[in-house]
Amino acid sequence: MYGYRKEQLNFVIKTLHFLEDEIHRLTGDFKKLKTREHWEYPLAVRNHPLSIDLDLCTKQGLLGVYDTTITEDGWNVYLFGFLQKSNPLCAQIQNSDSVENILKIERYPFQLMRKFLVLDGESNEKFVIPFTQNNTDFWKKRIWLRWFFPIWGVFSPFYIVVALLFDLPLIPFLLLTNGILFLSYRKESTFLWKEIKSLSVTSNRFKKTFLFLSKNKKETNQMLKWISKLGDSSELLVSPLPHLAFNLLFLWDLWKIQSLQKWKTIYSSHWNDIQNRIISIDSILPMVNFGYLNPEAKFAKQSSQFLLGSKSLVHPLLTKSNRVLNPLPEMKPGDLMIVTGSNMSGKTTYLRSIAMSLLLAGSGAPVLGENFEYPEFQIHTLIRSQDSMEDGVSFFYSEVRRLSSIIHNADGKNRTPILFLDEILKGTNSKERFIATREILSVLREKKCIVFLTTHDLKLAEIPWAKRFHFTELEVDGQMEFDYKIREGVSGSTNALKILKKEGIPIRNEEE
Q1: Structural domain includes residue 294
Q2: Which pTM was predicted?
Q3: 3 state DSSP class of 468
Q4: Exposure of 85 in the CB half-sphere (CA atoms within 13 A)
Q5: How far is residue 293's CA from residue 25's CA, in Å, rounded to a whole number?
Q6: Rounded to the nearest 10 degrees, what angle do helices 143-166 and 240-250 cross at?
Q7: What share of the chain is helix, strand, coil (3-state, %, to 5)?
Q8: What average pLDDT score do residues 206-229 get?
Q9: Same domain assignment for residues 100 and 8
Q10: For residues 330 and 308, what is the distance between their CA atoms, to the nearest angstrom?
Q11: Is 60 exceeded by the pLDDT of residue 178?
């Protein structure tokens, strides 16, 4: 009774924590979420250009804020899938569910999250759901023992009891024989006991999830009870002497290994099917949660005409009170949009809003906006460059290497390259910057890339094939204010000197 009440209390506490996290996500209070540190992400993920440029792996980055995965495999599929990065595991996971289909069913997303997320474990802890195979090499090497041990395992304890009662001989010989047999399979049986323990722990931890997703709950319940009971036997391994005694008396390990083999023969296919579905749903559950908490989000449409555009869109991590939706004019392969504007007016955020919306759409998630249409794409960003003292790489050279990589990898044969370039080639003089940027943009146009470029260099906006848009500041009662609205044309205002003066830096001659 005490154990049951303690289990129920733990369940209530976990449910409360789950609801608190959902409220923090809903209100945009992301700092209160227990998200991962940057270094806790896989190296290939945290060093990915998209992660760096879009702040995906920071404490309040989207990957961490909406990470509700509970399995290691589901977490990896979620991370690499969001980045549109190839991962062998992604191809192995068969996903028959989609974010859109799940969100269509009333209350089903919330029920899914309750079954998945209210588990024993620390925040951000990922669990392994083992895959099981029906074949066991243990018996293939010992075909004779498989048929012999059930007879011998029954005869041994029976004979020992009778021999003790009637003072019969051969007890030492029988115990020695069983001891030699035990030593012959002890090493391999240890690995099988680890498998039993892993399957048993998983069945207990994910019992509600298995049953919730199962079409045949009776069969699933029997499967979980069997392996859980078998796992209870593994506790005997903690005590070496009783474990040795049981094997000397009636070859205890072999009975349990045989039980495992029978379980696999009956249930391995059923277990693997549900295991696969748990991982596949787990990997898209962050996107389901995003759509569930943002019911105003709409699913994007993939364009057969290679077009990119939206009536409106906004960055997914902005709180509802701070959202300013902006249109994305229709862009087709070879198009260039140059966005000018004063500092802090919203240029870079606009680029990140488009990039994040593309990644959400590519992951099957809804997008915050209306009528978002996109082609099959490969996305490249150059928003944040870093120098390296260790490698002797300057800021400018680091940026040039990134640009070179983007140009060479922007291959539009199968997917449309979509590039986001923010104030590129800042580390050189204005004349060379203009010439280099113009030539780079010409090459990208020939490669049928869709390019978004922000710049303070108004001369770049004179490129004839560019679509020109800008952000600006407003002056209200002598103070700068921003409405973060995109406008057509080239920016006619600057605010760098105003910002410097506001922060107490003397500007004595503005006319020059």
Answers
A1: no
A2: 0.88
A3: strand
A4: 18
A5: 8
A6: 90
A7: 55, 10, 30
A8: 94
A9: yes
A10: 6
A11: yes
